[in-house]
Design a protein that fits this description.
alpha/beta; Carbamate kinase; VC0802-like; seven-stranded mixed β-sheet; 30 helices; binds adenosine-5'-diphosphate; binds aspartic acid; binds magnesium ion
Length: 815
């Protein structure tokens, strides 16, 4: 004998019912089969919704009813296209009974738990009827048995307790006489010893099947559903989740108790002592292995954590007060008061000081719990021995489950570190004495992020997902997107980094996809994106609430730089080539650094100095390893280098600057480069990163420009003054030539002071032969006192800047 249970989706359409029938047909070739069915997917919810509307005097319950009736009729018609008068009349009559019950609820304006059970039982009765009649109609040896005649319970409506003795006797005696190869049983529904209709609790069809399997001591119980087994975590929330091949009964119970909806928690109980294995199988993919729940397997899974589950809608209640300390009986009174109200406690922790007890229940029970507890402790509350109970809602429980967790140390540490790194606040923690479960309470909005981060930590150990939001796709930004597109495969395969561009924006439009944009035709896609706003982009990045989120600023926009703090406060890392934030006031710079530390969100700006050259990273590494910077000498302007490498007595200064601008080596306003402001900002950033508190005003800027150049009030005007002052520039060149020197614009940081200015560099000096748009930085430190550490290479250009940003993005993943 086989017992198979098919859930709501499995019987949710004619197409799926046909799949069910073919599975049953197959099984029944060799063996008798008992098939427990759920209501058609979604019908139980719809029945409850219609009843709720009716009791509230909302006539739209009729519309809900009609949708229910239509669904059943259309499925039947699809299953038996030729029609069958008797079957369809019977269905219509049944539906008419349902309609009368709803009308009654509407009239009396009331829905008791007893009526509710009577009403929802229509769901299973109807689906069992349709399936059984279809099978009979197709000539299969099939019978339908009403489980209300087998399952006996008490009168706890909506979640009745099974009276096993009577139930087992009924099941055994019925099946000892039944002769049909296939029996269809509606799940979930039952009858009390007083003859009232009851149900076994939402999701209870699994339980019906387990009770039948245990009563008949069959060899195995099969739960057929819409996923290929019990997954490592909820597959609807974590795409990378995968089915667990083997689970012990205890692990399955813990996972289902803590929210893995695929198995109704009480299901394990009846089969556990009889060692009947439970197989979870997928109706839509019958060949998938699925999950086997039993106690007879060798667990050689890679991690002691077998699964992670979650329960939403949790309210956390805290009872505290000095009057509780050392006085026995408090917990007893507390939990008795909840038991009397039939409130299920999901989670308990008590500090060893006994000063407070904290427990989690379903939010819907929280007000009832509060009044019950306030009533029981009325006296103590009035004497201020304990405080009135505190309720927090909008919470969820996340639980790690695994039999082998108890013999492994450091799992909770890993769990808390992973949550902490993602800025997920833990409101409460509990670990059962069995150590099979560690559960934490967190805010509901963080659940998806927490599950993904924990799943990555425990099951995809070597994989890391980075979720990138890029703003500014001009010259550099475009190269960055292209580089990411090109490297994604390599990163995934070689570095186990799954880099997803989730958001992309220019000044006009923005596009998003939390699974990662395909980037195939991103430019066209961006053109048709939604209207971009700086705050809109921030809000979306916050709302996605993805782990390892990184905001990348590829603009030179001051307003964007003002939002870095807001990103960091939401644990979104910031990677910027925009120099404004780090070179504005020291206070602002320090604040961002502090936010980065506080919220565990890297703030990286390597490309602020020397484009793709690893200048800041090297400096940080020197300092982190205990070195001290004594001096920095550098040529940091690709544009000024280009200008002075090309300017001589055969050229004109004006023409060379024009050419530099044309070739994209200067800012749109070349005065920013030529005045030395850009270089000053860079050395300022290096000075700050070396640990010096400094502002731009503190810096010496020995400009080589003439007063007329500096006072020009437009770019055109500036170019005119360059022509007028050609003699001045030729003089600078002539002097350098006479001294056998090269002109270089040098930034220096010494003894806590920084300055920038044009210098004549003699032969033999490392700066002398600096070519093209190259940059060079020399670090003199305690460990490099005489021979400096030198970093040299292209310090400008879209490709190298993009690759510098790319390196920062990858670095955030290593932090
Ligand atoms: P049925 O109607 O077949 O009883 P349920 O909806 O009750 O199906 O349970 C299956 C659903 O459980 C899946 O579709 C999935 O969304 C959800 N689920 C939650 N956690 C898990 C998990 N750890 N493994 C598998 N499914 C899970
Ligand atoms: N139909 C019921 C429910 O939706 C029972 C079940 O499907 O297991 O809760
Ligand atoms: Mg279910």
């Amino acid at each position: 004998m086989n017992v198979l249970k098919f859930g709501g989706t499995s019987v949710g359409s004619a197409k799926n019912i046909n799949k069910v029938i073919s599975i049953l047909d197959n099984y029944s070739q060799n063996n008798r089969v008992i098939c427990v069915v759920s209501a058609i997917g979604g019908i139980t919810d719809k029945l409850l919704k219609a009843a709720d509307m009716a009791q509230r005097k909302n006539r739209d319950y009729i519309l809900e009813y009609e949708a229910i009736a239509e669904k059943h009729h259309s499925i039947l018609l699809e299953l038996i296209p030729s029609g069958n008068e008797t079957i369809s009349t019977h269905l219509s009559n049944k539906l008419q009974d349902l309609r009368s019950l709803l009308d009654g609820i509407f009239l009396i304006n009331e829905l008791s738990p007893k009526t509710s059970d009577k009403l929802v039982s229509f769901g299973e009765l109807l689906s069992a009827f349709i399936i059984a009649e279809t099978m009979k109609n197709r000539g299969l040896d099939c019978i339908r048995k009403n489980s209300q005649e087998l399952m006996v319970t008490n009168s706890n409506f909506t979640k009745a307790e099974v009276q096993y003795q009577q139930t087992n006797t009924n099941i055994k005696s019925y099946f000892s006489e039944a002769k049909e190869q296939i029996t269809i049983l509606p799940g979930f529904i039952s009858k009390s010893t007083n003859g009232e209709l009851t149900t076994l609790g939402r999701g209870g069809s699994d339980f019906t099947a387990a009770i039948v399997a245990a009563a008949l001591k069959v060899n195995s119980l099969e739960i057929w559903t819409d996923v290929s087994g019990m997954y490592t975590t909820n597959p609807k929330l974590v795409k990378q989740a995968f089915p667990i091949e083997n689970l012990s009964y205890q692990e399955a119970m813990e996972l289902s108790h803590f929210g893995a909806k695929v198995l109704y928690p009480p299901t394990v109980q009846p089969v556990l002592n009889l060692n009947i294995p439970i197989h979870i199988k997928n109706t839509l993919k019958p060949n998938a292995i699925g999950t086997k729940i039993s106690n007879d397997f060798i667990d050689n899974s890679a991690t002691p954590v077998k699964g992670i589950s979650n329960i939403d809608n949790i309210a956390l209640l805290t009872l505290q007060g000095n009057g509780m300390v050392g006085i026995p009986g408090f917990s007893k009174r507390l939990f008795e008061s909840l038991a009397q109200e039939m409130i299920n406690i999901i989670f308990i922790t008590q500090a060893s000081s006994e000063h407070s007890i904290c427990f989690g229940i379903d939010t819907k029970d929280s007000q009832l719990a509060k009044s019950a507890i306030d009533c029981v402790f009325e006296n103590e509350i009035s004497l201020h021995k304990i405080d009135p109970i505190l309720i927090e809602t909008g919470l969820s429980i996340i639980a790690l489950v695994g039999d082998k967790m108890k013999s492994h140390q450091g799992i909770s540490g890993k769990m808390f570190r992973t949550l902490g790194k993602n800025n997920i606040n833990i409101r409460a923690i509990a670990q059962g004495a069995s150590e099979r479960n560690i559960s934490t309470v967190i805010v509901e909005k963080d659940v998806k992020k927490a599950l993904n981060a924990l799943h990555e930590r425990f099951f995809e150990d070597k994989n890391k997902q980075l979720n990138v939001f890029i703003t500014g796709v001009g010259n550099v930004g475009e190269r960055l997107v292209e580089q990411i597109k090109q490297q994604r495969k390599y990163l995934k395969e070689q570095l186990k980094i799954n880099l997803k561009v989730v958001g992309l924006s220019n000044s006009r439009t923005m596009i998003f996809n939390d699974d990662g944009l395909s980037l195939k035709d991103w430019k066209t896609e961006l053109q048709t994106g939604e209207k971009a706003t700086l705050n809109g982009f921030l809000e979306r990045a916050k709302d996605f609430n993805l782990r390892n989120s990184i905001f990348v600023d590829v603009t030179a926009n001051e307003d964007i730089s003002k939002l870095y703090g807001a990103y960091l406060k939401h644990s979104i890392a910031v990677v910027a080539c925009n120099k404004i934030a780090c070179s504005s006031s020291f206070e602002k710079y320090r604040e961002l650094k502090e936010l980065s530390l506080k919220y565990n969100a890297p703030f990286l700006f390597e490309t602020n100095v020397g484009a793709g050259l690893p200048v800041i990273d090297t400096l940080n590494n020197l300092i982190a390893s205990g070195d001290t910077i004594t001096s920095i000498q550098a040529v940091l302007s690709g544009s000024l280098n280009f200008v002075f490498n090309n300017f001589d007595d055969t050229t004109k200064f004006h023409d060379v600057v024009k050419q530099a601008q044309k070739e994209g080596y200067t800012e749109p306003d070349p005065r920013i480069d030529l005045s030395g402001v850009d270089v000053a900002r860079k050395i300022l950033i290096l000075a700050r990163e070396s640990g010096t508190e400094m502002n731009l005003e503190d810096m010496e800027n020995d400009s080589f420009l003439t007063p007329a150049n500096l006072e020009s009030n437009s770019v055109d005007d500036f170019y005119k003054t360059l022509i007028d002052d050609e003699a001045h520039f030729q003089k600078l060149y002539a002097s350098a030539k006479a001294n056998d020197c090269q002109l270089k614009y040098v930034a220096a940081f010494n003894d806590g002071k920084a300055k920038v200015g044009l210098k004549e560099i003699p032969q033999g000096h490392p700066f002398f032969n600096l070519e093209g748009k190259d940059n060079i930085v020399m670090f003199y430190t305690q460990r490099y006192p005489e021979q400096p550490m030198i970093i040299k290479g292209a310090g400008a250009g879209a490709d190298v800047t993009a690759s510098g940003l790319f390196a920062d993005i990858i670095r955030t993943g290593n932090k």
